[in-house]
Amino acid sequence: MATVTPDQEKNPWLAAEARFNIAAEKLGLDEGIRKVLGNPTRELTVNIPVQLDDGRIELFTGYRVQHSVARGPGKGGIRYAPDVSLDEVRALASWMTWKCAVVNIPFGGAKGGVICNPAMLSDGELERITRRYTAEIMDIIGPDRDVPAPDVNTNDRVMAWIMDTYSMHVRHATTAVVTGKPMELGGSRGRTEATGRGCMIVTLEALKKFGLRPEDTRVVIQGFGNVGGMAARLMAARGFRIVSIVEYNGALYNEAGIDIQGLMDHRKETGSIVNFAGAENVDKNEALFRECDVLIPAATENVITSANANRLRCKILCEGANGPTTPLADEILAKNKVFVIPDILANAGGVTVSYFEWVQDRQGFFWNEELVNTRLEDIMVGSFNAVTAYGEKHNVDNRTAAYMLALDRVASAMKLRGIYA
């Protein structure tokens, strides 16, 4: 791929740009529209002074990027991590644009981040960072502008702080300014499981193409957090055989299937998945390459690269994480006929139920969990079928099909709106 060289392979913005260019080229997208959609609408960098518990003042850097708001308010999480970069936030914001368009919900794409190490900060310091960051980005967020959500190292408590800070500034409770909130503040039932449930739903659809039943399907999952852990629990309950769980500090294997609830209890007691009585400890660097039917990378970006893509031994790759596969690896997977369910489809269950939460907050009327899950399944199944049908019609792989479908929808919205001058 000419736009990404091996030494640039792990740059997330270049990866997003490369895939955008492929889809735009195949669509024959107008050059002007291509320029607009190839760049973020708005990027905000803020410096956040915070007084630490020991009295020192520290300066943190935060970002909020809005990639596109052509189809509705920006939508995307906020992550706290030492390695947050503007390129990463740009890429994630663009992926949110395409993700919302793939599942056809009325949001654009946005993303935020603060460079910090939450493990080294007290709860009070995290709250002060969050509230000052919120105050700094106040002018560009809001229920009709840009709706943040949790991401890496943020959670419902952080969303509650953001909602409260925003509400205090506008002088009234505004629950719809964020999603992923506590239930008591307008959160939605089913939100915690939504991303993992979405992965399971699209995997079930993919199995139909291979004539497989869940009980005959061996699954390897990388990551045992909110996405991987939930996917593992829900898939095990549906009869899938979860043969391996891979984490940052170790991996487990059991050909007969791992007892997921037992493993969750073990991790709660010990703080780790290793040394679980119901499975064998294995090399975490090799576990991804064990033979299986479904591989779900649900942890971090750039896990599958040109250096290791040839070693995968799965039929179906379901991307639970954002950007787990690099563009150079895409070419290898296509050559090896791996059926890829791309991230902008596979993990869209989270943003879909976030949309449901936003709708419920704005209505002031809340749904039961059965209704949330039924509507989520309808959207995920419909979106999976739309992407695969698009791919078959245009003779392209699933990732390219998902990008083409998303670009087509966003470009159509832009053309209908016209250019304001």
Brief write-up:
By secondary structure, the chain is α/β, with parallel strands linked by helices. The chain is built from 14 helices and 12 strands.
Structural class: alpha/beta
- For the record, the CATH class of the domain at 194-346 is Alpha Beta
**Main beta-sheet annotation:** 7 strands, mixed
Strand order of the largest sheet: 9-8-7-6-10-11-12
Order of helices and strands: HHEEEHEHEHHEHEEHEHEEHEHHHH
Number of strands: 12
According to CATH, what is the topology of the domain at 194-346?
A: Rossmann fold
CATH superfamily of the domain at 194-346: NAD(P)-binding Rossmann-like Domain
* Rough outline: globular
- Number of H- or I-type helical stretches: 14
List its traits.
alpha/beta; 14 helices; seven-stranded mixed β-sheet; Rossmann fold
Can you walk through the features of this model?
The chain is of the alpha/beta class and 421 residues long. Among the domains are: 41-177, Leucine Dehydrogenase, chain A, domain 1 (Rossmann fold, 3-Layer(aba) Sandwich), CATH 3.40.50; 194-346, 3-Layer(aba) Sandwich (Rossmann fold). 45% of the residues lie in helices and 17% in strands. It has 14 helices and 12 strands. It has a 7-stranded mixed sheet. A 5-stranded mixed sheet has the order 1-2-4-3-5. A hairpin with a 2-residue loop joins strand 7 (241-247) and strand 8 (250-253). Helix 3 (86-102) packs across helix 14, helix 4 (123-137) packs across helix 5 and helix 13 (369-394) crosses helix 14 (398-417). The longest helix is centred in the last third of the chain and has 26 residues, at 369-394. It is globular, with a radius of gyration of 21 Å. The model has no long low-confidence stretch (mean pLDDT 96).
